[in-house]
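Problem: given the chain below (271 residues), write out its structure.
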Amino acid sequence: MAAPFTIAALYCFAAFDDPHPLARDLRALCDRLDTCGTLILAREGINGTVAGSEEAIAALVRHIRALPGCADMDVKYAAADGAPFARMKVKVKREIVTLGAGDLDPARRAGRHLDPREWNDLIADPGTIVIDTRNAYEVSVGSFEGAIDPGTRSFRDFPAWFGAFAGKLREEGRSPRIAMFCTGGIRCEKSTALVRARGFDEVYHLRGGILRYLEEVPEAESRWHGECYVFDDRVAVGHGLKPGTHRLCRACGLPHHADEDHVCPATASRA
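Solution.
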């Protein structure tokens, strides 16, 4: 029997002259379809994760793909036995994923996309620098073999980190091949555009992100270690997008392995 909830993680960089009327239409549609999750719109496009019946999600995706520039929108699907979100939110913001690095035009300036199997060959090459663009708490759940963890608390911290990292590369006289990845691909669209704007030409990123990689690459051929943190009640997923073994601490919001004792920083600071 099919799971009662279909989850769709989606994004598209597109030029919206005014996202506010688009958001109003989406709020009304999501209300009729009884979906849950979050959609974020900005002048640069749309991003979000939504859940609902299979029919409702199909109708919502059709609507979004009919928006200007969204016909080829990237969507990744998963299933859940229960509602992974408490309610539906449709927001208009300055950016669909906040980097705070000015106008980067990811639609035209992002790095070269690689499919999951091409990615394995690239990151196996010792001449490739592999960078995890996610935040430290996400990296703690799992990452690719040999990837650099910037140790960021927020995506906004990434430009400063990369600026310092790029400075060290230049001091060493290096302009290496750079491979970057994130959960679903959207942060890499912006971060690779940033890296190219900083003067690095050979820049790649994983098409569809970690989620597509875990869906398509058999575990026996995988270079991924651990699980992938996701921003819903599943907390983490493994190969084949099967539910993971992590839980979320309700006090501090950090993920932890279900079988391990979790020292909550929020609780410890009050002790």
